[in-house]
């Protein structure tokens, strides 16, 4: 792994990145990824997908990084991925990925970029859930003289978009797409699984997700319509599914990094969290029981995803620079460039002088990663030093 290379983040000169030898060197705040944990998390879900007999289509929306996705490659090269923006689709196509699902409802004005990728030989599927979208996708495909493969979004739990398996519009949408050569399958996402706090609840969510997608596919097939793809997935259900009969592929994204929300659900352990943010202590307010750092919501995000969980983790849990949790220390407040650390349950504050570097484990990996241009990469299995060695700098894809 190289220390810096093409795509070094704007505002961070390549020379500065190359000179950063340990986590004691770069300007704070900055994002850190433990590559050993990413590899372990990736292998865990890959084994499950193999056992369930489905293709794993990782969602790159969390890391948004080609070097992270490269960890998932085998000898065959870049594999299938899911994206949340066309900027990701274009960047991953440039990086050699040719099988991409754009898993956000399509808008008409985005179709020229979709068609441009299709003309390059990239299989880029779009997602839709309405007759209006089906009509303009079919129209664009006919005008361009190229099929635009489309998946119909299925609503399995009322969480967001999609048609229910029994919706009267479902075969209508499918027929419009099929007549234009665009129907590719169905896709669902169990968004409510992010509120499943027991293993049993997550298994039920996974079963419902599967049943909804398979029922929708079966209904279309009985109407004489082809369904090649039956796609399901979320990080909680992907790790809970025990039977995916009738499903062709499994999607998940957060699992490569994990976060405090996933740990709070019981999907992972704290030691599985691969993303953190390094900050510096810049002050103390002993009269309030505060330690102040230079990492506010611009570095961690405003996400408070654990606030509804049994254990509220504030804006994040605090570790030392090696990644060892500091018992009871939580980031409980955030302004734009200031983070406030307090001790849980009135415990005494640890002695952390001004200048001390710490790492904060985030609530929501996707939101925290989005605050940064890239990741300083460490390998937690290779060092016991107080300041872990930086193995690489991995840029992220930004924009839409």
Can you give keywords for this protein?
single chain, 400 residues, alpha/beta, Lyase, Ornithine Decarboxylase, Chain A, domain 1, TIM Barrel, 2 domains, eight-stranded parallel beta sheet, six-stranded antiparallel beta barrel, 12 helices, elongated, disordered N terminus, Ala_racemase_N, Alanine racemase, D-ser_dehydrat-like_dom, lyase, D-serine ammonia-lyase activity
Explain this structure:
Belongs to the DSD1 family. This is Alanine racemase. It is a single chain. By secondary structure, this protein is of the alpha/beta class. The protein folds into 2 domains: 14-34 and 264-395, Beta Barrel (Lyase, Ornithine Decarboxylase, Chain A, domain 1), CATH 2.40.37.20; 60-252, Alanine racemase (TIM Barrel, Alpha-Beta Barrel). It has 12 helices and 17 strands. Helix 6 (131-144) runs parallel beside helix 7. The longest helix has 24 residues, at 199-222. The chain is elongated.
How much β-strand is present in the residues? 15-25%
Largest sheet: 8 strands, parallel
Residues in helix, %: 25-40%
The value of Rg in angstroms is: 22 Å
CATH topology of the largest domain: TIM Barrel
Number of DSSP helical runs = 12
Keywords: Lyase
Pfam families: Ala_racemase_N (PF01168), D-ser_dehydrat (PF14031)
InterPro entries: Ala_racemase_N, D-amino_acid_metab_enzyme, D-ser_dehydrat-like_dom, D-ser_dehydrat-like_sf, PLP-binding_barrel
GO molecular function: D-serine ammonia-lyase activity
């Amino acid at each position: 792994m190289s220390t810096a290379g093409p795509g070094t983040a704007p505002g961070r000169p390549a020379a500065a990145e190359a000179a950063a030898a340990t986590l004691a060197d770069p300007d704070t705040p900055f994002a850190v990824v433990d590559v050993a944990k990413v590899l372990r998390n990736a292998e865990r879900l890959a084994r499950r997908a193999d056992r369930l007999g489905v293709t794993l289509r990782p969602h790159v929306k969390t890391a948004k990084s080609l070097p992270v996705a490269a960890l998932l490659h085998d000898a065959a090269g870049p594999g299938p991925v899911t994206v949340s923006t066309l900027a990701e689709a274009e960047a991953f196509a440039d990086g050699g990925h040719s099988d991409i699902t754009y898993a956000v409802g399509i808008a008409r004005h985005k179709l020229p970029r979709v068609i441009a990728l299709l003309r390059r030989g990239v299989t880029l599927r779009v997602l839709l859930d309405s007759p209006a979208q089906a009509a303009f996708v079919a129209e664009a495909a006919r005008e361009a003289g190229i099929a635009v493969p489309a998946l119909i979004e299925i609503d399995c739990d009322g969480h967001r978009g999609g048609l229910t398996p029994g919706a009267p519009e479902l075969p209508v949408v499918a027929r419009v797409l099929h007549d234009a050569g665009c129907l590719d399958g169905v896709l669902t996402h169990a968004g409510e699984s992010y509120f499943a706090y027991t293993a049993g609840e997550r298994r039920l969510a996974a079963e419902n997700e599967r049943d909804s997608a398979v029922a929708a596919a079966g209904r279309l097939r009985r109407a004489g319509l082809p369904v090649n793809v039956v796609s399901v997935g979320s990080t909680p259900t992907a790790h809970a599914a025990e039977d995916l009969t009738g499903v062709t592929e499994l999607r998940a994204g957060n699992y490569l990094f994990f976060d405090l929300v996933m740990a709070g659900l019981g999907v992972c352990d704290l030691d599985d969290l691969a993303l953190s943010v390094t900050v510096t202590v810049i002050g103390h307010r002993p009269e309030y029981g505060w330690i102040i750092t230079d990492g506010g919501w611009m570095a961690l995000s405003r996400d408070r995803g654990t606030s509804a969980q049994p254990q509220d983790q504030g804006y994040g849990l605090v570790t030392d620079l090696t990644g060892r949790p500091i018992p009871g220390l939580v980031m409980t407040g955030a302004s734009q460039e200031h983070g406030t650390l307090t001790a849980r349950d009135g415990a005494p504050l640890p002695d952390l002088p001004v200048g001390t570097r710490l790492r904060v484990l985030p609530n929501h990996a996707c939101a925290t990663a989005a605050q940064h241009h890239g990741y300083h990469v460490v390998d937690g299995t290779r060092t016991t030093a107080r300041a872990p060695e930086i193995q690489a700098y991995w840029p992220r894809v930004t924009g839409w």
